Amino acid sequence: MGKDRQPFIGIFGRRNNGKSTLINRLAGQEIAIVSDIPGTTTDPVKKSFEITGFGPVVLVDTAGTDDIGELGEKRISRALQAIDRIDLAILITTNNLLGEPEEKLISEFRKRDVPFLVIHNKEDLVPANQNIEKEYVNRGSSGFFKLKPALSTEPIIDAIRQTIPESAYTTPTLLGDLITPGDIILLITPIDIEAPAGRMILPQVQTIRDVLDNDAICIVLKETEAEPFLKKTGIKPALVVTDSQVFAKADKITPKNIRLTSFSILLARLKGDFSQYMKGTPKIDELKDNDRVLILESCTHHVACDDIGREKIPNWLKTHTRKQLYFDVIAGLDNIKRPITDYALIIQCGGCMITRKQLHNRLKPAIDAGIPVTNYGMAIAWVHGIYSRAIAPFQRKPK
């Protein structure tokens, strides 16, 4: 697997510890605002740069986690939220400090399984004592560095290369373990009110590319053309992948001896916690009157009158369960306003617009609280009675 996405590296620490200065030194150019005034950085600021011998990364400069006042609390909240989106953290400290702000950050890093490096900055003013490195290493730091203006940042760059997890910059295959070279893969892609003008949605594009990358043959049809095509040509695809919205129709027109799944379920396996989805989906049948369901859309888009997340899924669930259910929809990575324990079920979209880490961190509070989680495609397959067929392609032993 090659490097096909840019890892995110978050820079954290108290105000005026030199976070922005470090970013400029690492990048070799002035890309972050530097000031002696504490609190210059407000919202997280992102900037890409190239690490020689590794590839592009995105540095995320965050506000000081010792900020004060009502505005300061909001800045701290934004800084902590940034942890959900990063693959590696760099914690900047000075003056041998290891207090509540540092402990809070380390706790959040470990909670989200984010590796972190520690830099004791301004070493020329107050050198690190012999115990502070041990204290940070004991708390899980993957490296401790002493930095002053005259010292090279190359050891830090090298540690970044070594510490960023491979999963941060590689994307596993969608279909590689399900198909073989020369297989014919049929994709059913409705062109409806939600389809973007003049192009296809990202999961469809990703699937087409993955089919080609695995030396298979890709045939793309609208749902109205799929049945005539299969009857006229006699072609037996190795796999049919459909948009979840037409799952029921695809099930009817696809012969039972041909494997069938959806774009959303492919993404659920690629990015989501598939085992938790498998456990959570059957819980749909345990929903009770007045239960509240949370629907997580990981992108923002124009809402159509027949929107999949806001209209179709809620209606299908209410019809299937015959229960009075209430729904909240959160778009993008916005905060969930209610306590997670208010929900009886959480339904996550495929997550094509966010990283695997972001999606896992998005669902982790619910999973930790024992709230069932599922995915758009899996939930739709369940309420249409085709769940077992839809997940069957993933239950055979991989090649």
From TrEMBL:
Residue ranges occupied by any G domain in the UniProt entry: 9-122
Domain Hydrogen maturase F dimerization: residue ranges: 174-272
Domain Hydrogen maturase F tetramerization residue range list: 276-393
Coiled coil spans: none
Organism domain of life: Bacteria
GO cellular component, one term: cytoplasm
GO BP annotations, alphabetical order: tRNA methylation; tRNA wobble uridine modification
Gene Ontology molecular functions: GTP binding
Pfam families linked to this entry: HydF_dimer (PF18128), HydF_tetramer (PF18133), MMR_HSR1 (PF01926)
NCBIfam families assigned to the protein according to its UniProt record, in alphabetical order: GTP_HydF, small_GTP
Name recorded for this polypeptide: Iron-only hydrogenase maturation protein HydF
Originating organism: Marinilabilia salmonicolor
